[in-house]
């Protein structure tokens, strides 16, 4: 008795998509009166169980070994008599997953005339670069996500949009509102000291204060006996 009948697919193998970072497996099944051995052509990136027909991706997180690409796979089922059945499929290794924030960037309250240091962090298997839309008032470290002020931020409200991209063009962004307040009082250039004066003579006494946002007015408590140039 001679066996010249090849195996048959239980279900014809179809093209597959492999999302980068996820484990990849694909089951093929064939039938024959005799034992079937499965094999495939691309053993650098995939393996197949010779008795089970389970195809597995070897390097789900390593684009240096399995680059993002479309792989042409030829699957063969061979029976004990050497009769072959083949199917050609493609496996597309792709990255469509967007970065995610480790923590959603919160809004900021910032004190006038102090440096702004604000860090954003995102996660992605192929994280590439951070950027910001307002490069007049702010700058961002493209590699670390550290945001600093480029100029003296005025008292009031501003906002910026921070972006993060991965190497395949998937993006993530967040809008951050920043409120700059001036809650710091002026400081004396020299602390005012008590003094005496001779009765009947005019007295003058100079005080000086400084404030980053500028001084508005000088005043004193005893306006019955003294005046001050505001």
From TrEMBL:
InterPro entries reported in the protein's UniProt record: Cadherin-like_sf, Ig-like_fold
GO molecular function terms listed in the Swiss-Prot or TrEMBL record: calcium ion binding
GO cellular component: a single term: membrane
Stored Pfam families: He_PIG
Name used for this protein in its record: Cadherin domain-containing protein
Organism: marine sediment metagenome
